[in-house]
Specification:
By secondary structure, this protein is of the alpha/beta class. Helix content is about 55%, strand content about 10%. The longest helix has 25 residues.
Length: about 575
């Protein structure tokens, strides 16, 4: 929104100094303190000979005010400029009104395609807090690319293949329940997996205590049978694949329910099992390029000279591993989607694996090797339900909803006015979890704190939702309507100038976020905007004011509410209108 003013400043400074406007304009930024000025030129960045403070003083004295930039004042090696606030305010608020939910969007990615792979839970293992981080961060990155004009594809690459499915099949024969499988496939398969893993461990301990002859006479162990079962899956055994397919289908249906609750949509449900001939082609390419080496029947890629160790791609019994399937998937994805970029949203625990994958793709000489990106994140500590033990995401969301419902019920009068308290409690609970997760840089580990996140005050999800709902309430109760042609010259207070500045920065926030892919950039921005609105609440009123003043202020508050709602939506949250 400041571009027109920056260009005007750059043009005149260039004429006065002889420095190219292309050098001047990037040196002009929004002032940190509007009491000193609206825009600030950092003179040392002009690379002019002489004392920067003296140059600043000379340029400020030579400045000719106009309808756009009304004054200039030197402050050491800086020049602070005053701009026509009415022009800025009108352009900002009219832009928000004209573009609404797409305010700040660009066409920067037009004609380019990105695949964002995220969430990617393992069937038969709990959908836990780590998957939540991948899910909400990935969803943000997906939405952010769409906001910048990219053809974005959201992909869920399920962990649905491997020896553990042989173990799971054996476990289901022993401990499975058809009724429990249909009722809650994710939880039941996990329970089965835990039981059969425990049985396998107990068996291993018993065999360890036997002599060699007795151990040999004991026959195939559970782990031996699991390996054989998975080998039969890889060899295409129909009955083995039918059971596995049933586990997969039921689990995906359950996942979809969880994702719907989180407001997450996937364009593609993929998985390790879906990688077809890409795997055999990957092995052949590794062989042809001389990258593949054999060791006791197993096949590896030696990445030690790149400080990435030796990467196992095929076991001695011919079964494949994660890396093999990931290479095959990369080949197949490019051939199917012709992507310009592919982003893997995976925890920092997988840094080494992703580095091995990217380096192997590079060594294979694939022309799209530079299009791979790993977006990592840290761990969540202290996340458990009242019962403790392993935390399923479903349980965690239920608990956050109930905790928020308890907070809401404490204010009976307000609670009775909420149209759908169950749903609002659910949204607030998710907002609490998501905003705490995204408040800091994603690589940081953090400790999950129920007490802090459920607070309606401070930098929390419920606080942001409350700010949005309160602005919605103001609009409903106002005696005037939102008017894009309101006389915004009446918005002269310092606090209103601060709010307008904050609103004007949202396009810049989106531009910065697409470079860093850090959700915290957006979270910190809307927290600051919400704080500014809170500061204005008691003094910049709408009700009881003259119509012209009320219209100007309502347009400002409506624009702020629109931006907060847009940002919450970008973060994957539903903005609430009453609570």
């Amino acid at each position: 929104m400041y571009d027109t003013f920056k260009t005007a400043i750059a043009t005149q400074v260039s004429a006065l100094s002889g420095v190219s406007a292309e050098i001047v304009e990037p040196a002009v930024g929004v002032s940190n303190n509007t009491a000193n000025g609206d825009l600030t030129l950092t003179v040392p960045r002009l690379r002019m000979k002489g004392n920067p403070a003296q140059i600043a003083k000379t340029l400020a004295e030579q400045w000719k005010a106009d309808d756009m930039v009304t004054g200039a004042e030197a402050a050491g090696p800086y020049i602070n400029f005053r701009i026509n606030r009415t022009v800025l305010t009108r352009s900002v608020l009219q832009a928000v009104h004209a573009t609404g939910s797409k305010y700040g969007w660009t066409n920067e990615g037009a004609g380019k395609r990105v695949i964002v792979e995220f969430s990617s839970p393992n069937i038969a293992k709990p959908f836990h807090a780590g998957h939540l981080r991948s899910t909400i961060i990935g969803n943000f990155i997906y939405k952010l690319h769409k906001a910048h004009g990219w053809d974005a594809i959201s992909m869920n690459y399920l962990g649905d293949w491997g020896k553990q499915y042989g173990l799971l099949a054996l476990g289901f024969e022993r401990f499975g329940s058809e009724e429990e499988l249909v009722a809650d496939p994710i939880k039941h398969l996990f329970d089965v997996y835990v039981k059969v893993s425990a049985a396998a461990s107990e068996e291993a301990e018993r065999i360890k205590a036997m002599d060699a002859e007795a151990a040999a006479a004991a026959g195939p162990t559970i782990q031996d049978q699991a390996r054989a079962y998975f080998k039969s899956m890889e060899d295409g055994d129909e009955s083995a694949l039918a059971l596995w397919q049933r586990f997969r289908t039921l689990s995906i249906e359950k996942y979809k329910q969880i994702y719907a609750r989180l407001g997450v949509h996937f364009d593609v449900y993929s998985g390790e099992s879906q990688v077809g001939e890409g795997m055999s082609r990957a092995i052949q390419m590794l062989t042809d390029t001389g990258l593949l080496i054999e060791d006791k029947g197993a096949k590896l890629v030696d990445l030690t000279e790149h400080k990435l160790d030796k990467a196992l791609v095929q076991k001695s019994d011919g079964t494949t591993l994660y890396l093999t399937r990931d290479i095959g998937a990369a080949i197949e994805r490019y051939e199917k989607y012709n992507f310009d970029k592919i982003i893997y949203v995976v925890s920092s625990q997988q840094d080494h694996h992703l580095k091995q994958l990217f380096k192997t793709v590079e060594l294979l000489g694939l022309p799209y090797a530079d299009r791979f990106e790993h977006i990592n994140y840290g761990l969540v500590n202290g996340m458990s339900t009242r019962k403790g033990t392993v935390v399923f995401l479903d349980d965690m969301l239920h608990e956050s909803k109930e905790k928020m419902h308890d907070v809401m019920r404490a204010n009976e009068a307000k609670y009775n006015d909420v149209a759908n308290p169950e749903h609002i409690a659910d949204v607030l609970g998710m907002s609490a979890i998501v905003i705490q997760d995204m408040a800091a840089r994603r690589i940081k580990n953090y400790t999950f704190d129920w007490g802090r996140i459920l607070n309606f005050e401070g930098d929390t999800g419920p606080y942001l939702q409350y700010a949005h709902a309160r602005l919605c309430s103001l609009e409903r109760k106002a005696h005037v309507k939102v008017n894009p042609d309101a006389d915004v010259s009446l918005l002269t207070e310092e606090v209103t100038c601060d709010i307008i500045n904050q609103i004007s920065l949202y396009p810049d926030i989106l531009a910065a976020s697409i470079k860093s892919l850090e959700p915290c950039t957006v979270v910190q921005y809307i927290l600051k905007l919400s704080h500014s609105i809170s500061s204005a609440w008691e003094t910049i009123k709408v009700r009881g004011e003259a119509d012209d003043v009320a219209e100007a202020r309502l347009l400002m508050y409506w624009s702020a509410r629109t931006v907060i709602g847009n940002a919450l939506t970008l973060l994957g949250l539903e903005p609430v209108e009453a609570m």
